[in-house]
Amino acid sequence: MPNGRDATHSGPTEKCGVVGVSLEERDAARPLYYSLYALQHRGQESAGIVTHDGFQQHSHVEMGLVGDAFGEDDIADLRGSAGIGHVRYPTAGSVNKSCAQPFTVSFKSGALGLSHNGNLVNADEVREELAAQGHAFTSDGDTEVIAHDLARNLLESDLVRAVKRTMGRIHGSYSLTITHDDTVLGVRDPEGNRPLCIGELEDGYVLASESAAIDTLDGELVRDVRPGELVVLQPGGEGFDSYQLFERENTAHCFFEHVYFARPDSVIDDELVYEVRRELGRQLWEEGGIETDVVMPVPDSGRAFASGYAEAAQEEGSGVEFAEGLMKNRYVGRTFIMPTQDERERAVRLKLNPIKSTVEGKTVTLIDDSIVRGTTSTQLVDLLKDCGAEEVHMRIGAPPIVAPCYMGIDMATREELIAADKSVEEIREAIAADSLSYLSTEAVAEALGRSQADLCLGCVTGEYPYDVEGEETDREVTRPEIGGVAGTDD
Ligand code: SF4
Questions:
Q1: What span, in angstroms and rounded, lies between the C-alpha atoms of 136 and 438?
Q2: Residue among 120, 257, 456, 467 to mutate when testing ligand 1 (max atoms within 8 A of CB)
Q3: For residues 369 and 116, what is the distance between their CA atoms, to the nearest angstrom?
Q4: What are the start-end ranges of the H helices in 352-405?
Q5: d(Cα 411, Cα 151) in Å, to the nearest integer?
Q6: What φ, ψ does residue 21 adopt, rounded to 5°?
Q7: Going by C-beta distance under 8 Å and a sequence separation of 6 or more, which residues neighbour residue 346?
Q8: What DSSP line would sit under 88-135, residue for residue?
Q9: In contact, 180 and 476? CB cutoff 8 Å
């Protein structure tokens, strides 16, 4: 996996990647297909593309990896120079084609296709209201809720007003790419929780969850879609129009995108992910550095953190040596994509092997980006000690994960999270490390160059930027009143 997510890392899982393309003449399907390849790390359960040729909508959505989901004939059948794509990693229990995307619906004023990254926290309320008005739903997904709401609003309003009305009614995290006939739109929720950026190609424009997809198409990153902004790509790839539909005092960018999900070679909200991770590593040394013989990353997730950490240590005169002490077997991953606890434990042994000479008789600092259940960390400490490490110290480039995510990340439940009810010392004991320290939320904000008030830190503070039932909020926020006045603001 490009960002290091795999079987040995029993961590949170990003649920989706989205893309949209509008070109002058050539068909959009192939660039969409390549973009989905670039976003494969954001979802491996299903892949789909919807295009429009000016007369008709074409769609191909399949379970599986991008390479397996599309054949040459499928790409050829997806005609038209405008389209969107999606890769998805659903939470357990909803692995079926009816939840795969893009979601499509045809109605009186045209055809809609929708790709969604994120999660609405008031989808049930909106669905109930629409169902009472006669809308028939085919899935339990929140994307269909957005599609029906938008379709309804499009019967009464122009495109921009309709999107604004829908945005006024849905509450939660969403980065969307949408086709309305052959017009491609990009929308980011007013808090800007999930990423979305705009790129320019030789013959058109592209919208994508991460800039790495734009690079794959030899395009130039123009900028991020702003929180609360609607971007409309002009048919024919001539340009794009921007509508700032909502504006909040504070954003709520998911800090975990930078720490964990995104590819290191992507630029998100103006920051190169790789550099942010190195800076987090530097902060980790500042806050919890420890003198050991070697510092080594958990491959691949801890690599950028460990290089920043070692660099900061060496600048301060530490004799710590940066070493790759764990070697990865790259051919194991797929078998264990959604493992049981038992499989997960075995997966670590299959996947990683220590290099004896860099470990034996040495004191070791092992660096990773997070501890979720603690299974992997326990196994790794054990592995290094078995290999002759004198001491194993763990340093984590993020704060302890204490609460679940309601914004579209499959994070594990509170019961599964090792930090939900354990102190750092209790976790250290459980994973049998000689010492353990995490990064503070202050250091995370500093490395991202943002105030904590502009980040979502819900999973590490237990306070969320959205009105989630039964949970605390970190700001003044209430969900829209469905059936009331909210949503008619145009
Ligand atoms: S709760 Fe955590 S993973 Fe979820 S959006 Fe917020 S920061 Fe990201």
A1: 48
A2: 456
A3: 26
A4: 356-359, 375-386
A5: 32
A6: -140, 135
A7: none
A8: E-PPTT--SGGG-SSEEEEETTEEEEEEEEEEESSHHHHHHHHHHTTP
A9: no
Element (H, E) at 86: strand 82-88
How far apart are alpha carbons 397 and 371 in whole angstroms?
10
- Which residue is catalytic, options 16, 254, 387, 456? 16
Q: Whose CA is nearest to atom 2 of ligand 1?
A: 459
Q: For residue 365, give the nearest of 314, 429, 305, 290 by alpha carbon.
A: 290
For the Cβ of 33 lying below 6 angstroms from any atom of ligand 1, the answer is: no
pTM: 0.91
* pLDDT score, position 490: 46
Q: Which of 190, 199, 288, 290 is nearest to 243 (CA)?
A: 190
- Residue 478, beta-bridge partner list: none
pLDDT in tens, 188-197: 999 999 999 9
Q: How far apart are CA 71 and CA 118, in angstroms?
A: 28
Q: Ramachandran region of residue 346, left (φ > 0), alpha (ψ -120 to 50) or beta?
A: alpha
- Cα 324 to Cα 355: distance, rounded to the nearest angstrom: 8
pLDDT band at 301 (very low <50, low <70, confident <90, very high): confident
Output the CA 428–ligand 1 centroid distance in Å: 24
